[in-house]
Amino acid sequence: MDAEHVIPIIAAAFLAILLGGGALVAATKKSEFLGHPKGLYMLFFAEMWERFSYYGMRALLIFYLTQHWLFSDGKSNLIYGAYTSLVYITPLLGGYLADRWLGQRRAVLFGAVLLTAGHFLMALEGTGGQNDPTINAFWLALSLIIVGSGFLKANISVMVGQLYPLTDVRRDGAYTIFYMGINVGAAIGTIIAGYLGQTYGWGYGFGAAGVGMLLGLVVFVLGRSALRGAGEAPAPLARNTEWLLYGAGIVGVAVIWGLVQYQDVIQTLLIISGVLLLGYVLYEAFKLERHARDRIFAILFLIALNPLFWGLFEQAGGSLNLYTDRYVERGGVPASIFQSINPIYIILLAPMFAMLWTWLGRRGMEPSAPAKFGLALLQVGAGFLVFVLGAATADVTPVIFVFLIYLLHTTGELCLSPVGLSAMNRLAPKFMASLIMGAWFYMTAVGNFVAGKIGEATGGESGEMTKGATLSIYSTIGWVAVGMGVLVLVISPLVKKLMHLDTLRDDEELAGYKELGEKQAPGLFPDRETKPGPQET
User: Fold this and answer.
1) Running DSSP on this structure, what letter comes out for residue 328?
2) First-to-last C-alpha distance (Å) of the chain
3) Contact at 8 Å (CB) between 68 and 128?
4) Residue scoring higher pLDDT (38 or 137)
5) 3-state secondary structure (DSSP) of residue 37
6) 267 vs 238: CA distance, rounded Å
7) pTM over the 0.85 mark
8) Where are the alpha helices (DSSP H) in 163-304?
């Protein structure tokens, strides 16, 4: 049997085993499993299915745009970048509504409903071409997915943090486990949806993504009790107010339906909203005491590195996906399946990184969050430089260099993304938790739009990708990333001082705090009962 058929069978078998493990976790009567609250595993599976649907659709999107709707390579990359940027900017609104009124659990539930509808709507193909009226259903499907992600993404990440005290040594490990859930879903979804879409038809691939999202919704509804109160509304919420907020989400779908079709408008909005967001965060920061204010400054530094990293990393689903399809010796394997390499690496390497950080942390040797960000930029830049070097060795790029670029990008991602999620949740004041997480995803949105612009440039003036132009651009962005990585490593000690890790304190009202009762991370934090920090005096 050919590899193109074997790979999806293996993915389906792995999914079956994983679901069996999930049933085992659900069946246990203990409040914890393997040292973590059961709620973590419920969120793991809910997010796994959401990522199954999102990445399964993402693997096909650039080909759907170029081959079915017949957009040029450059225009398709720009639409792809606009779509993924909006997916990451809408969590800012979803996080704010959850902080103020809805609570994270209701926001995630509403987002999952919109996502399910959007993914099933993607299965409507029509006849293809930009003159086909069915393209409006395609734009609506993208809009539902974008707004649904806005309500789900930031809030489900916040709920992970609410299961642990701030100084719990398990927090980074928990976020890495959660990140594995993201990538298990991404790997399996990419393989199954990509295979079905490119082998049997677009509707089959997108339909599989819809089924995955529906299962994620079911898991979240049935697993509510495992959350132990995490993610509930900050105050009793009137039914009319709740439905008004859902109505605002539907209005948001209509607005996004227009935006996703006019990408130049998105660029202007990103600039304006970015300035407003920065102003609001600084306004709140200057009302805080010194240590909390300094932590906001550290957060802003980390967030500011997001666009560079993700602008390069997100070439994966756009220009690198097209390059793999056209200029790489693939052995008959559909190009979309290569999108599973990154999440598979995450699954394999994430436990090693989690153990490494914990092992180094207990010995006082763990790199700081800003230092890890510097390492991430070095690796994403090196990935492009290695790829360019390998592509120059033959007319058709050897497939090994696709595996190498994804390997370096994955190790870079593990130094930045789970670490960033943990840092946002740990350093942000409680009343700004979801907003700060939304700001993290906002700057990821900027990075995704930058990725679209870089991808558009690989099409040149004609709009059609060429191998030479693409490799030239990859070389340039690779060296820029390496240079920035070195700079961040140099100034990381200064940023670490702004984090004031020695004066962080747990909130007694944190969901599950009394039940967990974990000790503070050794060597990092003073005893909070006997050594009050400056903000407590």
Assistant:
1) B
2) 70
3) yes
4) 137
5) strand
6) 37
7) no
8) 171-199, 202-222, 239-259, 263-285, 290-304
One-letter amino acid at 438 equals G
Contacts within 8 Å (CB) and 24+ apart, 73-76: 73/322, 73/458, 73/459, 73/463, 73/464, 73/465, 74/455, 74/456, 74/457, 74/458, 74/459, 74/460, 74/463, 74/464, 74/465, 75/456, 75/459, 75/463, 76/318
- For 98, 186, 203, the CA distances from 344, given in Å and listed in that order, are 32, 8, 25
Structure tokens belonging to residue 249? 């989400």
Burial track 445-473 (b if 16+ CB lie within 10 A, e otherwise): bbbbbbbbbbbbbbbbeeeebeeeebbeb
The neighbour count for residue 164, using CB atoms within 10 Å, is 27
Q: For the segment 276-309, what is each residue's pLDDT rounded down to a tens digit?
A: 989 999 998 888 888 989 999 999 999 999 999 9
CA 128 vs CA 37, 64, 141, 145, 268: distances in Å: 48, 9, 15, 21, 30
**Residue of 33, 74, 38 lying closest to 319 (CA atoms):** 74
| Cα four-point dihedral sign 404, 72, 267, 114 | negative
- 312's CB contacts (< 8 A; 6+ apart) are 380, 381, 384, 451, 454, 477, 478, 481
- Contacts for 217-221: CB closer than 8 Å, 24+ residues apart: 217/49, 217/109, 217/112, 217/113, 217/115, 217/116, 219/42, 219/45, 219/46, 219/49, 220/42, 220/46, 220/108, 220/109, 220/112, 221/109
What local confidence, expressed as pLDDT, does residue 453 receive? 93
Percent of the chain scoring above 90 in pLDDT: 51
* Tokens 């930045």 found at: 416
Length of the chain: 537
